[in-house]
Design brief:
Length: 260
């Protein structure tokens, strides 16, 4: 018998398509771990930077305390010796802070340190300028006082030379004018100081004259009494009277000696 033949179709290769595992959460986790590690490193680096800056600031503070308050520090310099103390100390400050800056290791530290230095420099400059100004004024005052005292003494010692006496008075006037301008004295205050100084000079001259000649002292007093204070006028007038009484007593003694 003939049997029916079933025609077989060619088969196609079977393709198996698998589903890839989802690794997104793993990647995110790794990224999170990486960020956490970086943050930890950044924090540690910041702590290290801060520690170095604190140490640098402490070194700068110690230097400043030594420079200002030590036995030979800026604040021990007085009068003439304090002139230019600001520039000299700031120059030393720049050298000190530059040496300290060498201990820093990265740009962040150096930038933050520069801010500390700028602030410290401004504060130090302000303090030094204020101190130097005060000592400068003290020095000027000392010089003026010395000028006035030597002029008074010179006028008294050289009272017999009117020309030199006038020169001393002119010097006194010049010193007082300069002083009034320096201190910004009101006209009334300047005039009062001038009266007191000129009165002192006249008194010194008259006291020296009384030793040699009460008559010359009286004549000088009459010429300058209007430039003397009321107190000095009274004291000088009494001194002149005593000088004349002394002369009268001496004259009586001589007369008595001649008659005996």
């Amino acid at each position: 018998y003939d049997t029916a033949q079933v025609q077989q179709q060619p088969t196609r290769p079977i393709q198996l398509q698998g589903v890839a595992p989802d690794t997104t959460s793993i990647a995110q986790g790794l990224q999170s771990v990486g960020r956490g590690a970086q943050m930890l490193m950044d924090k540690e680096r910041e702590k290290a930077d801060t520690a170095l800056l604190m140490d640098a600031d402490n070194q700068l503070t110690k230097w400043q305390q030594q420079a200002m308050y030590s036995e030979n520090g800026a604040y021990t310099r007085k009068g003439q010796n304090a002139l230019d103390v600001t520039n000299q100390t700031l120059e030393q400050f720049e050298k000190a802070q530059a040496e300290i800056a060498k201990t820093l290791t990265n740009d962040q530290q150096k930038a933050r340190y520069a801010q500390i230095v700028n602030s410290r420099r401004n504060s130090l400059s302000s303090d030094l300028n204020r101190y130097e100004y005060g000592e400068r004024q003290n020095y000027y005052g000392q010089v003026e006082k010395a000028q006035l005292e030597t002029s008074m003494q010179g006028a008294a010692l050289e009272y017999q030379d009117p020309a030199k006496g006038n020169q001393y008075r002119q010097k006194v006037d010049a010193v007082l004018s300069s002083r009034a301008e320096r201190l910004g004295l009101a006209p009334e205050a300047a005039q009062a100081e001038r009266l007191e100084t000129n009165s002192g000079m006249s008194t010194a001259v008259i006291q020296r004259m009384l030793i040699d000649s009460p008559q010359k002292a009286k004549s000088y007093y009459e010429s300058y009494k209007d430039t003397m204070t009321a107190e000095d006028q009274i004291r000088t007038s009494n001194g002149i009277d005593q000088g004349f009484r002394r002369l009268e007593a001496e004259a009586r003694q001589r007369q008595t000696a001649m008659t005996t």
